Amino acid sequence: MYPATSSVAKGTSSLSPAERRAAGKALRSQVPRSSQARWLPAPNRPDPLIILETSNQSRLADLVPIRYGRMLLSPFAYLRGAASVMAHDLAATQVTGLMVQLCGDAHLGNFGTYATPERHQVFDLNDFDETLPGPWEWDIKRLVASVVVAGRTRGFSEAQNVEAVQWCVQSYRHHLWEFSGMRYLERWYARVDAQSTLLQGDLDERRYLTRAAEKARQRTSIHSFPKLTEHVQGQYRIKDEPPLIRHLADEAVEKQVRNLVEGYGASLPEEREVLLSHYHLVDLAQKVAGVGSVGTRCYVALLLGDDHTDPLFLQIKEAQPSVLEAHLAPSRASSPAQRVVMGQHLIQGASDIFLGWAQSGARSFYVRQLRDMSLSAHLEHLRARAFLTYVELCGWVLARAHARSGDAVQLSSYLGRNEAFDQAMATFATTYADQVEQDYAALVRAAQMGRIHAVEEA
Predict the structure, then answer these.
(1) Please, which of 8, 33, 166, 346 could form a disulfide with 421 given CB 3.0 to 4.6 Å?
(2) Whether this model's pTM surpasses 0.85
(3) d(CA 75, CA 80)
């Protein structure tokens, strides 16, 4: 475990930018960039299935088979659900000691578009369940491993996958160097605008991304209302779609969730708490979300303003300790949900205006809008050229996230201007992708032998 003093720096360094650049470059002698390529499982590496089963102990037992069913869809789906396994593996790798606020689960599926409070579409990280201060290497290594695993799942050649990793890492490295030369406020205000960046490819790529951007613009509470609700006996209610969406059968649990929705506004800035107060709670349902999150308690709430023409859908999601906390210093936040919200505010260029948290007994929950022009890429539909554009954007976004919380000057100086780190990451990503495929095959065998119970969704 890393020492308890490890945390994101808060601008207390007395070194000048030139001294920090020298310090970053000096780290190459202690941790050569080529050494970042290494991945070799330890002889005593735990059975990944045991790690997954341990993480299931705090989940709703009836939803765990759905989690396994989703993970069995492909090696990439397995990788998405196995953040705890990769966290254990990354803890054994060499690091420079430079710390950032980690996303903690920076695979390709956790990037996408959403709306800023000013209603602009941006491209950014969109999942922060595992966020925690930690070594910057862990985010970039999870990202590049996901590039190769996703590329193989998509059927791309190994040469194409290596090229994609190099595009991703080069983007990360180049943009981090740019951020290191910016003023702190410039870094903080920097955003990756969806319209001006996602539409720069060839004609087919632009057509696909234009359709995706338009689809995202339709993902709002107003547009979702007819799809997610029904009118029953004079009341609007959320449609049941078991087992993914269903009303709560336990009245005590429903009361707890109602109290969460009605009380979490205290965690918002006062002006947003006033805005929230104009809406009243109409209905609640349990919802299954994601892959790695399946089994944690997640609910959707329908609120209305004056009438049904002014709906607001909120997602209430249980936060648990980050999988990284088994290998890093525990979070200093008062609760896992506060950790998620504070980490998201630190990493994202702009966050949902209704993002907040609340406590219910021993459990904590964070709350946000269910849909607000949010959309993640369907990687299985991306052609090779569009895939390169997508991973390049992900590298850019991760660089901006790390530049906001860490020392971009030291980090960019360590990475340097040549391709040494890019090549190291290509080797790491390929080798770790082999490990993921082996672990996935073991999960498939476990399901076939009845060691685990998996539910295949229609």
Answers:
(1) 33
(2) yes
(3) 9
